[in-house]
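Sample pair:
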Amino acid sequence: MENNAAMRLAWPFKPRVTNDRDGKDKHGSASDACPDFLCVGAQKGGTSWLYHQLNFHLDFWMPPIKELHYFDALSRVKRPALPPCRDERDQRFLERITELGAGSYIDLHGYSRLFEPKAK
């Protein structure tokens, strides 16, 4: 675990909407896009159902891979085959997750950038 020194300890995600004291909501730009939520679930806990429900909803963009496993074993996850791409957002996502997985350390900033396509 000698590579952990390169891991950032701060949560890199920015809030999508902030509510200032002046009563005005400020919405982030596409470059500030970040996950709205992170689902951690047990096996047989309904995460597949949740993924499919959100994936088919028009207001959501879900990654083409349901279980990223990025934080497993310092991001050295081998996938037998990548899923088919639905659009260019999926293609960029799969390219970026492959690049991140090839790294020797966990890159939280790079991980947060995976979700930029959801804002487009």
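The first strand starts at residue 17 and ends at 19.
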